[in-house]
Amino acid sequence: MIPNSEIQNLDLIDLLSERHTLVRKISEKAWNDSSEIYISNSEWYIMARIYKKRPTISYVTKNVEISRQAIHKFIQNLAAKGLVEISNAENSKKEKCIQLTALGNECYEKNEALKSQLENKIAEKIGVEQVKQLKNLLKLDWGLE
């Protein structure tokens, strides 16, 4: 991480990147300090896309910004850890569906609580209203796509 004094000179893109990297690192450490199961950021990303859903693996590969081969590897890793289960789709013999197991849901929800604690810590430092404002700004359509 770059020193706080250097952060003052960064443009928007680099500021977003620095803050994202920092909070992801803190979030990952919080999880790894409290759990026996290592889950990478890419695995969390996939778990977030399937939480409370049962999408096909092809849907996940089209909607997650990771290569198809890497997604298949991460899904196999998640299955080996007992966090997801893969099953046949109801109306296709070739399609497979993926969903979180009970353990996967439990881990996901525990991680959401850890992220909420981190958000509260940020709010204590910069203010609740600023966090709300930041979230609203990030949710706006920036007209970039």
List the helices and strands and how they pair.
Blueprint: H1 4-7, H2 12-34, H3 41-50, H4 57-63, H5 68-80, E1 84-88, E2 96-100, H6 102-126, H7 128-139
Antiparallel strand pairs: 1-2
Helix pairs in contact: 2-6, 6-7
Give the helices and strands as they follow along the chain.
HHHHHEEHH
DSSP, total strands: 2
Largest sheet: 2 strands, antiparallel
Relevant CATH superfamily? Winged helix-like DNA-binding domain superfamily/Winged helix DNA-binding domain
Uncertain runs: none
Strand order of the largest sheet: 1-2
Mean pLDDT: 93
End-to-end separation: 29 Å
Name the overall outline: globular
The portion of residues forming beta strands comes to: 5-15%
Output the number of helix runs: 7
- The residue fraction in helices comes out at 55-70%
What does this structure look like?
- The chain is mainly alpha-helical and 145 residues long.
- It has a single domain, classed as Arc Repressor Mutant, subunit A (Orthogonal Bundle).
- The chain is 65% helix and 7% strand.
- The protein has 7 helices and 2 strands.
- It has helices at residues 4-7, 12-34, 41-50, 57-63, 68-80, 102-126, 128-139, and strands spanning 84-88, 96-100.
- It has a two-stranded antiparallel sheet.
- β1 (84-88) and β2 form a beta hairpin.
- α2 (12-34) packs across α6 (102-126) and α6 (102-126) packs across α7.
- It starts with a helix and ends in a 6-residue tail after the last helix.
- The mean pLDDT is 93.
